[in-house]
Amino acid sequence: MEPLEPGKLPTHLAIIMDGNGRWAQQRMLKRIVGHQRGAETIKMVVEQASLLGIKYLTLFAFSSENWSRPAMEVKALMALLKKYIRQETARMMRKNIRYNVIGNRSDLPDDVNATLEDAIRETSGNTGMVLTLALSYGGRQEISMAASRLARDVAAGKIKPDDITMELFSGYLDTGGLPDPDFLIRTSGEMRISNFLLWQLAYTELYFTETYWPDFTINEFHKALADFQSRERRFGKTSDQLLNRGSLLNA
């Protein structure tokens, strides 16, 4: 595995878990088998991220656009989600991991929402990594709904228009209270962000791999993290400015 420096890991890691269906189709298997194998990859990544000390992990589990998939596949995905949450909650408790959910949960089946509520409540006191599942989530929808909530507060006199800042608006997003991701991984070879965390990814480092999600191993995970550690994050500054800042800190 690639050597990693604990002090240079992302604080917040986001992942677009892509390629389950294609993985299964290439093996002449039903698509749901790919999703089942993908769930095993999730278990590995969650455990590894927690062990490495990553504080926030956000997984794009089901997009608002995924509702347009065949009804049988959607039904199977919802059943798999419920099974995963029920089976993994005990492990989340042992690992001190807290569940969080973003997205339009009103679209989810009642039994799935009930399972999520139980898991969120049971893990609410945990103080380790925050595992956020993006479910029925779309970035444009999130921004639109946040703007609507903010507009209502302005109309009610709770906020003055001149007081609106990017930081204030961020608090109206589903991810309010979470730091923006430092690093985004997308599997399967697709090189786009697919309406995921559009506001939050403004300065995020992006990593794309040809590997399908069910084949994303511990070695692949460490390889991605090592790539992140090799990058220089300038946030609009020059390399010289960063070097000078480091020289001043070490003076």
TrEMBL record:
<feature type="binding site">
    <location>
        <position position="18"/>
    </location>
    <ligand>
        <name>Mg(2+)</name>
    </ligand>
</feature>
<feature type="binding site">
    <location>
        <position position="31"/>
    </location>
    <ligand>
        <name>substrate</name>
    </ligand>
</feature>
<feature type="binding site">
    <location>
        <position position="23"/>
    </location>
    <ligand>
        <name>substrate</name>
    </ligand>
</feature>
<feature type="binding site">
    <location>
        <begin position="63"/>
        <end position="65"/>
    </location>
    <ligand>
        <name>substrate</name>
    </ligand>
</feature>
<feature type="binding site">
    <location>
        <position position="67"/>
    </location>
    <ligand>
        <name>substrate</name>
    </ligand>
</feature>
<dbReference type="InterPro" id="IPR036424">
    <property type="entry name" value="UPP_synth-like_sf"/>
</dbReference>
<feature type="active site" description="Proton acceptor">
    <location>
        <position position="66"/>
    </location>
</feature>
<dbReference type="GO" id="GO:0000287">
    <property type="term" value="F:magnesium ion binding"/>
</dbReference>
<feature type="binding site">
    <location>
        <position position="205"/>
    </location>
    <ligand>
        <name>Mg(2+)</name>
    </ligand>
</feature>
<comment type="similarity">
    <text>Belongs to the UPP synthase family.</text>
</comment>
<keyword id="KW-0479">Metal-binding</keyword>
<dbReference type="InterPro" id="IPR018520">
    <property type="entry name" value="UPP_synth-like_CS"/>
</dbReference>
<feature type="active site">
    <location>
        <position position="18"/>
    </location>
</feature>
<dbReference type="InterPro" id="IPR001441">
    <property type="entry name" value="UPP_synth-like"/>
</dbReference>
<keyword id="KW-0460">Magnesium</keyword>
<dbReference type="GO" id="GO:0008834">
    <property type="term" value="F:ditrans,polycis-undecaprenyl-diphosphate synthase [(2E,6E)-farnesyl-diphosphate specific] activity"/>
</dbReference>
<feature type="binding site">
    <location>
        <position position="35"/>
    </location>
    <ligand>
        <name>substrate</name>
    </ligand>
</feature>
<comment type="function">
    <text>Catalyzes the condensation of isopentenyl diphosphate (IPP) with allylic pyrophosphates generating different type of terpenoids.</text>
</comment>
<dbReference type="Pfam" id="PF01255">
    <property type="entry name" value="Prenyltransf"/>
</dbReference>
<dbReference type="GO" id="GO:0005829">
    <property type="term" value="C:cytosol"/>
</dbReference>
<dbReference type="GO" id="GO:0016094">
    <property type="term" value="P:polyprenol biosynthetic process"/>
</dbReference>
<feature type="binding site">
    <location>
        <begin position="19"/>
        <end position="22"/>
    </location>
    <ligand>
        <name>substrate</name>
    </ligand>
</feature>
<comment type="subunit">
    <text>Homodimer.</text>
</comment>
<feature type="binding site">
    <location>
        <begin position="192"/>
        <end position="194"/>
    </location>
    <ligand>
        <name>substrate</name>
    </ligand>
</feature>
<protein>
    <recommendedName>
        <fullName>Isoprenyl transferase</fullName>
        <ecNumber>2.5.1.-</ecNumber>
    </recommendedName>
</protein>
<keyword id="KW-0808">Transferase</keyword>
<feature type="binding site">
    <location>
        <position position="186"/>
    </location>
    <ligand>
        <name>substrate</name>
    </ligand>
</feature>
<feature type="binding site">
    <location>
        <position position="69"/>
    </location>
    <ligand>
        <name>substrate</name>
    </ligand>
</feature>
